[in-house]
Design goal:
about 5% strand; two-stranded antiparallel sheet; mainly alpha
């Protein structure tokens, strides 16, 4: 792996991941082809999982397919990835995320403008079912982001040697997290998936894009991923008898 291939892999893979993730959200919100109600949360959860599948398959030979600053930072914090490559990976991830969101915007531009630019770009607190006018606070989404990313990073660590089939396991994991923990905050699980599209949304003038809530999907996925690395290292010492 060379720096050039690593940067290309992270940019390309994150581009595809965010393009299809934001596109899935736009498809669900705008429902451009079928009757109202035809798309729903399934489109977002499954679409996000399949977006990971596409991104990982495209970038794994080039960069190992981190596609997520939380993954890269957790690997580096755990001594599993060299710090000298971290800035290059993060730059590729955030750039790819921005370009992916831009691609989705261009594809759905007419529909988004017709509906007043709804925020299909970034995550935020979900509505409380018993009080539709009320939103979750930050606590539930923060816990969900940390635990969801913990689950994702755990699969990366323990199933990462399964070759190309690991892309399928990661896709199913993201979909499972979407179904199991996506309600409170929208399961970003990835700072590049949220912050880069959020920047584009802010430039486009989307309401709420500049919310301080952005700290939740920026910080708590890193906490969840780093916790998974700590558990992995503990398990490795237990299995190998290392001190």
């Amino acid at each position: 792996m060379t720096p050039k291939s690593a940067f290309l892999g992270e940019t390309l893979g994150t581009f595809l991941l965010v393009l299809l993730t934001v596109g899935s959200a736009a498809n669900a919100v705008l429902e451009p082809r079928l009757v109202p109600g035809a798309y729903g949360y399934d489109a977002i959860a499954l679409g996000s999982g399949l977006a990971v599948l596409v991104g990982v398959l495209a970038s794994r030979p080039l960069s190992g397919a981190h596609l997520n600053p939380a993954v890269t930072l957790a690997f580096a914090l755990g001594g599993l990835f060299p710090w000298r490559f971290v800035p290059l990976y993060l730059l590729g991830q955030f750039l790819g995320g921005f370009l992916g969101a831009l691609g989705a915007y261009l594809a759905y531009r007419e529909g988004l403008l017709a509906q007043g630019l709804p925020n299909v770009f970034s995550t935020g607190p979900g509505f409380l079912r018993t009080a539709p006018e009320a939103l979750y606070g930050w606590t539930g989404p923060a816990v969900a982001e940390a635990l969801g990313t913990f689950a994702l990073m755990t699969v990366i660590l323990f199933a990462g040697k399964d070759g190309r089939i690991v892309a399928l396991w990661l896709a199913l994991t993201v979909a499972a997290v979407g179904y199991g923990l996506g309600g409170p905050g929208g399961f970003a699980l990835n700072p590049a998936r949220d912050l880069s599209p959020r920047l584009l949304a802010w430039l486009l003038g989307v309401e709420g894009a500049a919310s301080p809530y952005a700290l939740v999907p920026a910080l708590f996925p890193v906490l969840g991923a780093a916790s998974a690395v700590a558990v992995y290292r503990l398990a490795d010492r237990s299995l190998t008898g290392k001190p």
